[in-house]
Amino acid sequence: MAQQMLTELPQLLRGLSVTVEVSGIVLVLASFLGFLLGLLLMFGPRMLRLLARAYIDTIRGIPLLVLIFACYFGLPAVGLKLSAVAAGITALSAFAAAHVAEIMRGGIESIPRAQSDAALAIGLTFWQRLRLVILPQAVRRMLPPWVNEAIGIVRGSALLSLLGVGELLLAMQNVVGATFIVIPFYALTALLYFAVNFTLSRTSVVLERRFAYLRY
User: Fold this and answer.
1) Which residue ranges form the domains of the chain, and what is each CATH number?
2) Is pTM beyond 0.85 here?
3) Which of these, 71, 106, 127, 153, has the minimum number of CB atoms within 10 Å of its CB?
4) CA distances from 180 to 8, 151, 186 (A)
5) pLDDT digits (tens, 9 = 90+) for 96-138
6) In 10 A of CB 86, how many CB atoms?
């Protein structure tokens, strides 16, 4: 059995690399889109704030699996055909961006209004206040929930196996189907997921220490 596990390990590692790659792309896209949505929620014109709120509440209310299927099976109906990987990345990014936007909003709202008023009093523009005063203080509070969202993205990437994307879960299922060695490969797969998420958690701790000097 040990020999079979060593033989099949490269396939699991290839699946892990797909999981990490997809999760990394989604995290970057979701963070960027969530940042923009968060700014619109807090500082945008009324109409844009309403549209951002409608998007966030709608997406957060849809199960991730439904959103993945909608992107893969529904978009071709309107002439937009995506590959399984592209559909999965689109769905995960749209879903995570809504959560990142709420993280962004909460982080900014946690900063006392007096901080912004003081920056305004010394003549800073809006973008200067945001860049030099608000965000440096908010980022430390946003880090823990942002890392939790990153971990959620890694977990959510397992659903892409339902579209045939060769990520870690599908690789494990293929290996189990070929070898009929169930428990050891399930345990090894769980260990690989744990290694990725534990790395993210430790990175969060390092970043929090890095920004620990940001106090008011």
Assistant:
1) 2-210 (1.10.3720.10)
2) yes
3) 127
4) 12, 29, 11
5) 999 999 999 999 998 888 888 888 888 888 889 888 889 888 8
6) 14
